[in-house]
Amino acid sequence: MPNWKPTVIAIAGASASGKTLFAKTIYRELIDELGEEGIVIINEDAYYRDQSHLALAERENTNYDHPNAFEHELLSQHITALCNNEAVEVPQYCYKTHTRTDETTAISPKRIILVEGILLLNNPDLRDRFDIKIYMDTPLDICLLRRISRDVNERGRSVDSVTKQYLSTVRPMFYQFVEPSKQWADLVITRGGKNRIALDVVKANIHQILQKHLKE
Ligand SMILES: Nc1ncnc2c1ncn2[C@@H]1O[C@H](COP(=O)(O)OP(=O)(O)O)[C@@H](O)[C@H]1O
Ligand SMILES: O=c1ccn([C@@H]2O[C@H](COP(=O)(O)O)[C@@H](O)[C@H]2O)c(=O)[nH]1
Fold first, then answer.
1. Does the beta carbon of 166 sit less than 6 angstroms from any atom of ligand 2?
2. Which domains, and CATH codes, for the chain?
């Protein structure tokens, strides 16, 4: 049993606000120092509910921006298990088929666990699992422009389908669930995933935590 407990850092905010970029930049800049055993990213999207029992046309109508679309109980169980030094099997999700694949990703406990996703701070049980809560406060028009380009290039979508989904669910759910969850954040980050000062503040915090592990 290690003498440290993982530190769990949540990175929340609107779709395409820069959560993934922020998490991946921290990971890339720390991985040489911490090693594979030191840091990992978990994506909330991996915990979208399995929809393999539904026809593709039905899956296309799911509201993916409502909390019920996620199996948050499983994400919460997995974080608890990692904090108890147990390995977990994280589901894999496919945005093109809108369901889980048959594969899972094995994750062992790490000193630093970065969790990123739109609705992490909305759920009180999940909130209790996070040591540091971050909210990416990127203007929604910038998020929309980035989402169109990303979804068309990487998630097999058309501009028309992104537009319809944005107006019917993404935007209303943002105002109902995502933006109000900002109140729970310890750090609110403006200007997205490339905000160098914000990246350095979070990295400095991680270094402080690692120093404590060395002393324990
Ligand atoms: N500051 C930025 N400048 C330019 N492009 C960015 C910036 N932040 C994010 N992007 C791009 O916008 C898209 C969405 O960013 P991403 O980090 O995936 O957002 P999220 O994880 O919040 O959905 C990606 O294609 C990413 O490369
Ligand atoms: O099958 C799906 C699952 C999710 N989405 C959209 O993804 C975003 C959340 O992911 P980000 O990486 O934070 O953008 C969410 O807004 C869903 O609308 C989807 O379109 N299809």
1. no
2. 7-201 (3.40.50.300)
User: Quick one: which of 150, 148, 169, 171 has its CA closest to 160?
Assistant: 148
116 lines ligand 2 (CB under 6 A): no
- Which ligand approaches the C-alpha of residue 173 most closely? 2
0.90 exceeded by pTM? yes
Taking only the tens place, the pLDDT of each residue in 94-133 is 999 999 999 999 999 999 999 999 999 999 999 999 999 9
Task: Name which residue sits closest to atom 6 of ligand 1, judged by CA.
Answer: 18
Atom of ligand 1 nearest to the CA of 150: 25
The tokens describing 194, both together, are 């490339």
**Interatomic CA distance for residues 187 and 23, integer angstroms:** 14
* Ramachandran angles phi, psi of 136, nearest 5°: -85, 110
